Amino acid sequence: MKKITLTITLLLFTSACGETTTQNTAETGEDTIPTTWEEVEGYVIDKGKEGGNEKFLLVEGITQQEALEKTSREILSGDSYDNAIWLTDEDIDFPDLGKGEAVIAWWDRAKPHQEPGILTVPAEKVEMNHKEE
Known about the structure:
Elements: H1 2-17, E1 37-50, E2 53-59, H2 64-69, H3 72-76, E3 84-88, E4 102-108, E5 119-128
Protein name: DUF3221 domain-containing protein
InterPro entries: DUF3221
Organism: Planococcus salinus
C-alpha cells in the first residue's frame, strides 16, 4: 500500500512540475502571458529596419515630452541607455507606431538573443498604451 501511495504522490508531483509556464489570468479576462515573457513599458524614440524586419527603440523612465523633443542620441547619452530596448517584428506585426507613442511590449527571455550595446529582441506582443501625463 505504501508503494502505491508513494507512486501516486510521485506522479502528482512530477505532473505538477511539468505544468505550463503561463500566468493564470482567467479571472481578469486578459490574454495569458507566458512567465518567460518580460514586460517593458515606455516611449518609442526611434524606428528602423533590420534584415527586412521592422524595429523600434523603446525607452522606459522618460516622459512623452522627452521622447518627442529630444533625439535618440540625446536620450541614450544619459541614464536612459540602460532602460532602452530595440524590439523587432520577427514574429508579429507592429501597430503603426510613431515617435513619442506610449507602448507596452513583451519579449521572451527564453529566446536566445545578442546583447550588443542595447538589447535587441523579437517582440512577442505590442500594445498601444493610451495614458495621459
